[in-house]
Here is the input.
Amino acid sequence: MKKLLCSLLCSLCALLTLLFVLGSCAPKQKADSGDGITPGNLSNGGFVARNKKFLFFRNVEDSGKLYRSLPDGSDPQKLTDDENVKFINAFDDRIYYVDHTQEADGGRIVSINPDGTDRQVLNAAPTGQLLVVHNKLENKNAAQLFYIDTDQQRVVYQPVGNKWGKEFTLATQQVYQFAVTRTRFYLLTEGGIYCYARLLLNNITSGQLFRKGRHSFITTSAGNEEVFFLEVDLSGRAVDLKRKKLGGSAKRFADFSGLSGLDFIVLPKKIIFWDEDSQTLCQMKRNGKQREVIAEAPEADTSYTVTINAIDDTVWLFFLDSAGKETMRTFPLQ
Here is the structure.
């Protein structure tokens, strides 16, 4: 009996040791930055977001209205009748998005509960990109908005609370797009790319020139401080895809010379992009190597522009044809 008990104890110890080793070797999930939208989706329309319980997405089969579902895509439910929603932010216990029901108005910021109740319109200015983050300087549990006022082509900062705070303009130049990392805020302007420290946004009036030149697109990815940007020629055609770390030099790692259109998203291990000329979806490593085609257009004789979003290990593709019809597909990353 003692031998049997001893044998069982040894087996139990061995099992616990094995579980400990496996657990220590397993990849750890990176902590969320606290932003309402991922960096890649922020640069690509913000059509998909998630919180701990649900996915929130633009339903192309229902005029682009806001829906939610369980993480596996089951039990889809409409949350609002607002159409053509973009830049969905799932932030704490609220959902924020830009409502483009009236395209002539240029979009407005709306906030709702995750179940669709308590709808509030937060601004009336024509709105482009929208990012919701924690207001760490004033109250870490409060929300603050960064959005592009498309009338003035500027980025505006406004705290969310019982009363609106004073508007704070981040740049005097025309701003076309912005991107964020954990510590920095990047603006794509007519004069180049400017960089701001995220914790100093309340106190600064100008940023540091990060990259001079002509660019059509900037983006970042979660978990690092790199910026990816697409350089263009005088005609606006893509030339090079480059990456740059703060304080470092820009490195060219992909040649896209001559492409009329390119949409891409940077993920932790790879870059997914849509080549408008060949109408193919491609992937490559983050160093630009091992480029390969992974999908083609839904219909061979139709030309599409594509918006790429990603949540966890799933890529969401939103196809828009020349007639204005939108379709959506998802596929898991390998």
